[in-house]
Amino acid sequence: MSSKIYEVLQWASSFFREHGKEETAAEWLLRHHLQMTRAQLFASLRDPMDEASKQTFISDVKKHALEHIPIQYLIGYEQFYGRTFIVNEHVLIPRPETEELVSHVLARTTEKALSVVDVGTGSGAIAITLSLERPTWHVYGIDIAASSLEVAARNANQLGACVHWLEGDLLQPIIDRGIQVDVVVSNPPYIPASDVPALSPVVQKEPLRALVGGEDGLLFYRRLMEQLPHVVTSQALIAFEIGHGQGQAVQTMLQQTFPSAHVDVLFDINSKERIVIADLASE
Ligand SMILES: C[S@@+](CC[C@H](N)C(=O)[O-])C[C@H]1O[C@@H](n2cnc3c(N)ncnc32)[C@H](O)[C@@H]1O
Questions:
Q1: What CATH number is given for 88-282 in this structure?
Q2: Which residue has its alpha carbon closest to ligand 1 atom 4?
Q3: pLDDT tens-digit profile of 181-212?
């Protein structure tokens, strides 16, 4: 006898709870499998679930609960700044905190045509959003991993954004091309290597190269300080996402690299220091 949708949903919610996962993920995953909105799902709860859909859903529930695969990798997308981005195991799942980084960059700039680079672009979430929000901007997205850039290019294509993708180490691709930029934005890997074992097993399924910023988490900021003076214009804005407790260190690095710049540490909606912005225009 076939199961009703609500029975399958109840089973998945309990299975997630028993395995220490968010129960609400069950509804999210089920809606994806049934291709239903929330309202449609609730109107269909007493309908039977066809056996094929049920089996693929159960398989995904087990992948999340037992193998810790993030739900976003199972369904293949995540929302960022109101748009849907393709994600897979080659890219970091874009986070709401990074939407705040984008908002701060937009709030401190205008429609004026600028050259902008997103360093460590991953799914392309930052570069694509900036390019769509500011169509006059010339946006570069750099990543060390060709597999990430492939996802970023698919996202740009799907969302109709024009971004120039470059493969390479931090800012090196634009240094090599002699390109100067007005805005540098980056959410680099910033987790200290020793913190990785304490991360949730679901987060540990994301690429390590997207998470770990050396022994103290600050490696990429340090390396960027050496490259930045070669690429920024005199009026540039530099905006970095940072991890917990890194505000002062990154602020000091930027202040030492650009002594007359105005450098701020900003907090996210959870009151955690999350962004450091240097405005070179005040130099
Ligand atoms: C924290 S993820 C950020 C991804 C995306 N920008 C976001 O905010 O969702 C860091 C990204 O930096 C890339 N990366 C790591 N080392 C790099 C390097 N040396 N040069 C360029 N990109 C690098 C990783 O592949 C990963 O995509």
A1: 3.40.50.150
A2: 122
A3: 999 999 999 999 999 999 999 999 999 999 99
* Ligand 1 centroid, distance to 54 Cα (angstroms): 36
Dihedral of CA atoms 210, 233, 133, 251 in degrees, nearest 10, equals 50
* Angstrom distances, CA of residue 201 to CA of 2, 94, 97: 34, 17, 20
As a residue count, the chain comes to 283
Sign of the CA dihedral running 150, 154, 155, 160: positive
Residue 1 has pLDDT above 90, yes or no: no
Which residue's entry shows tokens 């109101």?
Answer: 82
Ligand 1 within 6 A of 125 CB? yes
Closest C-alpha to 167, from 180, 157, 177, 156: 177
Asked if the interface predicted TM-score (ipTM) of this complex is over 0.85, the answer is yes
Following CA atoms 147, 121, 93, 248 in sequence, which dihedral angle do they give, to the nearest 10 degrees? 140
Contacts for 82 with CB less than 8 Å, ≥ 6 apart: none
Taking residue 68's Cβ as centre, other Cβ atoms within 10 Å add up to 16
